[in-house]
Amino acid sequence: QTLRALFQYKPQNIDELMINTGDFIYVDPSQQSSVCEGWVIGTSHRTGCRGFLPENYTERASESDTWVKHREYVLTTTPRFLTRTKNEPNEKLNGEVLSSSMSRSLTNILPQQNSTLQRGVLVMRHGERVDQVFGKSWLQQCLTAEGKYYRADLNFPSTLPKRKDGVSHFEYDPPLSCCGVFQSRLIGEALLDHEVTVNYIYSSPALRCIQTAQHVLQGLKLDNKVKIRVEPGLFEWTKWEASRVIPNFMTVTELAEASYKIDTSYRGNFSLSSLVPSESYEEYVSRSSAVIKQIITSCSSKGVILIVGHGSSLTSLTRPLIGLPARDSSDFAQVVRKIPSLGVCFCEEVKEESKWQVANPPVTTLTHGANAAFNWRNVIVEH
Amino acid sequence: QTLRALFQYKPQNIDELMINTGDFIYVDPSQQSSVCEGWVIGTSHRTGCRGFLPENYTERASESDTWVKHREYVLTTTPRFLTRTKNEPNEKLNGEVLSSSMSRSLTNILPQQNSTLQRGVLVMRHGERVDQVFGKSWLQQCLTAEGKYYRADLNFPSTLPKRKDGVSHFEYDPPLSCCGVFQSRLIGEALLDHEVTVNYIYSSPALRCIQTAQHVLQGLKLDNKVKIRVEPGLFEWTKWEASRVIPNFMTVTELAEASYKIDTSYRGNFSLSSLVPSESYEEYVSRSSAVIKQIITSCSSKGVILIVGHGSSLTSLTRPLIGLPARDSSDFAQVVRKIPSLGVCFCEEVKEESKWQVANPPVTTLTHGANAAFNWRNVIVEH
Predict the structure, then answer these.
(1) Where in chain A is the domain with CATH 3.40.50.1240?
(2) CB contacts, 8 Å: A146 with chain B
(3) Distances (CA, A) of A104 to A4, A268, A333
(4) Which residues of A touch B331 (CB under 8 A)?
(5) What distances in angstroms separate CA A129 from CA A109, A135, A212, A217, A341, one per listed residue?
(6) Which residues of B are tagged catalytic?
(7) Residue range A221-264, pLDDT digits in tens
(8) Are A143 and A326 in contact (CB under 8 A)?
(9) What are the phi and psi torsion angles at B69 (to 5°)?
(10) CATH code assigned to B2-61
(11) Spatial separation of the C-alpha atoms in residues A180 and A126, rounded to whole Å
(12) pTM for the full predicted model
């Protein structure tokens, strides 16, 4: 069994293993019997060292992920991508030396330059949402007794957009945090750097997705050229998000008044009223499959169709596109739980065969640490 | 014993406790005997619920931190701050109702408006550094076999500044990550929002501190007005940072050529050559105490003196200023370890008595989550 480190871990004891983000660790299930819960004993692929590590710093990796050399060669012999890249580390791809950091770069290798422009679909999760950091009570934390919004922590947005039905409706439709805006802008700028051509942008009606779309477009310097199509059919599996009632989303008019670049003439493939609370997994799968097919049909220009949705969108939209059946529902929850903010999946059309295939995304991963609150009194005065 | 939650924790089991960042949790040491290692059983001050929680999601709090009401009143009866604040939630401060989020706002209450401008010292830790996210091997991860820099993850800076002695010297003097730049800019903008008057800015010679200073100044829109004074005496305790040799810092000339707004005429109170590797704690304490006194003496204008240093600076510079002895060295390590990126401490001068006292910082905390790398192949195709 192979694990992949999601975070860096620095040993606190002599018998523990140093791991860096992206490291692969071999774990022999037969050796785990006497190990304390939450810990595993493993061997680092990078260093060859052996020791204890915290299991929740890792995710399960596929065995084949460590077949580095083979994968590297596949990439260099199939120049089939529709994006162009500056400062390509070609030397590394064709080099003979497998450096210690090679395994890390697996997910980070950028596509090759190719002038053939095809259709591509880039599915993206929204950025960090305020309730992800501050919990369900986030709105209470930044409202005065009179219901006036203030910024209780610098990661809260400096203002909330205006909505007619009152500020309390943000509770079930939370905005991005400032960090979420930063993440979205960074991905947009990276897409611009790699000269990715985005011709269409679709968003879930959730505010965090529309804000992500807006800031990605700003990073791409396309916010005055490509307008956001708000597609209710892209909303989260309602069993997860809306167990009793579908949130009151901001209307397209309100969004446009709040300076979001919305395509007000767009009519969704699904209407808001067609979303039902607590839909079954089968209903969600069939909605996702229908919406991606309708999007593909209505976007004929070559270049990238950007879809900003939820973690779940990365699997539920891409699998029907490339002809795979839906994951089973328990597997689905496992996979989706691990998708970070601004996680992306990419598919491209194979014109000759009129089908779609998975491809390397045009941008690399975005990995950063957490920042905790602290009390300055403890630092200066108290013990 | 009281703990303070550093992160949100969502229960995975029925017997676990939901905690939000900033929550206080009461823990009875006599009840912990049968609890699995790494877990404690506690009662939430906010919800009154009882259950298991992961100990490493918390830090030890002072008992008196939960004396909320008393502290709130102290703040409203001493309008002695030198900064002005917009959108002040005064209603809340003077209100009768102690809402459930009151304990959280403890560290976040903003100073009162006051037109009397005094001298203040704002000590700030630098932003997120690349090696904090990517580990000690960060430079290997983003250099090609030919030694050319490329951005292996979007949180690496898009370029590195030029330095004559070669890129390898960044290993011991790492730059900010993109997230670190975001954090610095955000604090600068918040200082501008609160109309804080910064007249002087000092920085440790470490690149991450100079970059933090630069981006804070940009956020403050002061980057063409106030120049950065690079003060070698502000460098980290060399026992932690430079056990064998002091890093080769970028020279003031190189920094200026790389567009950092440096005061090239400034001569440090300490010279670079006076920094010795592996200095004793006493040597570090005495250096810190000397440097803060020299800074205070040479900055006579009213307004804020901003000092960008290391986590350790927040205690080692402020305690001599307000007349407290240095912490003992084990205590020191404990406290410093918990200071987040852009953590700040603030002291102000009491003119009548010609001494300094601790005060509420002019900006609130900055709390955000981590973002992990993931492998898109697992999402679409693999199990």
Answers:
(1) 80-129+176-359
(2) 91
(3) 10, 40, 25
(4) 383
(5) 28, 10, 10, 18, 9
(6) 125-126, 310
(7) 999 999 999 999 999 999 988 768 899 999 999 999 999 999 99
(8) no
(9) -60, -50
(10) 2.30.30.40
(11) 8
(12) 0.73
